[in-house]
Amino acid sequence: MGRIRDRTRNPPRTRPGQVLAVPDPPRTQEMASQTRPSGAGPGRVFRDALIIKPPKKSPASLRMLVLVFAMVCGVYICSVCLRQTNIHTSTKFINVEVNQRYCHDNDVDKSQTPYLHYPKPTSFSRAECACNPVRLFTILSMQRSGSGWFETLLNSHTNVSSNGEIFSVKERRSNVSSIFSTLDRVYNLDWFTSASKNQCSAAVGFKWMLNQGLIEYHKEIAEYFNNKGVSVIFLFRRNLLRRMVSVLANSYDRYAKLLNGTHKSHVHSHEEADTLSRYKPVMNSTSLVMDLKLMEKMVLDALEHFSSTRHIVLYYEDLIKNRTKLVDVQGFLGLPQMELTSRQVKIHRGSLSDHIKNWDDVTKILRGTTYESFLQTDYTN
Asked: What pLDDT does residue 105 have?
């Protein structure tokens, strides 16, 4: 007989996942008796065991596992870096706010805070005036309504910079974007004119005529004024007939150049004023009433469009008669009180009958209308 093969030494080969029953190794009777439950009879001393041999892992799956682990670690590291960057950025913003708060004056009425600004111009440094608050304003008016004279009064104040009629240039008012860009430069003190006192200005602004894009984009501009805290100064003439005389005379001199071949919209001597006032325009009697209505409507529309802004309404005649109105203006702009002066001389003085060639026709047309009061002398100087 052949030998009995020892299966424990050379176990048969198995396929992956195959279940094989293997007998327990032989034990001594003493060991068997120790492991046999009490009361159990003699029986089998061997018990079956299940051995499951796992399949071999593929190298490709291991590589994929390592790759996924590396990606997870990379995402975690990036998130930590981003958090640290955000913390540093927030700290910078907080520092800026703290620096701006440092400039604020605790004695100022809290209701005025939205109208106090601390510009940081790009073209120069405000140096020791960096913490001096600046108020932003604009003068809304119509040509030949006394706005030029009024602006010279404001600019006689040590702390006021009113930069003239900046939107007379069409490119600056071609669209809303160009308008806002111009406004930003002016109110950031990066606009330079002969009137600029930028370093220590307490109020900065300009004059804006109603026919220079102001009415066309009134919604956007009013929103800009409210968001930026811009104060509006309305300046109009009560007597629109006098304004018409001034417009026609100025238009004539633009071509006639009565002052030694030079056109001047404003003069600084009585001699020059007398020379210009010698021209007497002829009023269009056919369209006179309609023209006055159109001017009146422009004024009313402007007052309505910008009624939501912080504003004050002034009239040229009131400023002429009562100079204490200028005290109100300085208070409105939060300025220290000063005596305001101007070198400009009024051109058309006295009664309107001395300045209109067809005065009798004008009198007949306006008599009995709402504009009859324009025929009266509203001031003598």
From this structure: 61
